[in-house]
Amino acid sequence: MPDSRSAASESDISRDRLAELLNEDLAREYQAIIGYVVYSQVLSGAEYMDIAAQLEIHAKQELDHALILSRQIDYLGKMPAVTPKPVRTSKDSKAMLRYDLENENETIRNYRDRIRQCETLGEFAMAEQIRQILVQEQDHQIDLATALGEEVPDVSAGPKGRALGKRR
Ligand SMILES: [Fe+2]
Ligand SMILES: [Fe+2]
To answer: Which residues in 142-153 are b (16+ Cβ under 10 Å) and which e?
Structure first.
């Protein structure tokens, strides 16, 4: 497959590099699946029962994201990664939610970059798929920030204006 490298500019990215970055995203999705599978079951305290149910939904959505990314990596002619980023654990419910929120912030930052990189390469359908993933990641971020009683973090020009707690 030809490499579409041309003039070296900041937004210049090859298809090989995009596949590498998508594999990093995939490793973050595996991390998210594991985190949500475990945290949804071990969160304790009546005040966390709502968010525990939401985390079960997140776990399934993260699996969908992993499948979409694997398909795109294969389409780019590369082998999808098999190793998750490390998952932190804690006995403290608040700490678990905080880890999830930090991971979602990082994921959102990355997908925003990825959409621009896909568009630079003319991969508009791939950009669209990642946009749909990004919509769900922002919902996860809102769910977690709401459960922690915090403002939704502004990870750049973020989803600040959104109504909190809209989705159940
Ligand atoms: Fe995800
Ligand atoms: Fe997520």
So the answer is: bbbbbbeeeebb
Determine the distance separating the centroid of ligand 1 and the alpha carbon of 142, expressed in angstroms.
14
Closest CA to 146 of 42, 51, 76: 51
Q: Which ligand is nearest to the CA of 25?
A: 1
152: three-class secondary structure by DSSP: coil
pTM: 0.86
What is the whole-number distance in angstroms between the Cα of residue 15 and the centre of ligand 2? Answer: 25
Q: Is residue 73 over pLDDT 50?
A: yes
Tokens for 121, please give them. Answer: 């390469």
- The angle that helices 93-120 and 124-147 make with each other, rounded to 10 degrees, is 160
What residue has token string 């919902």? 139
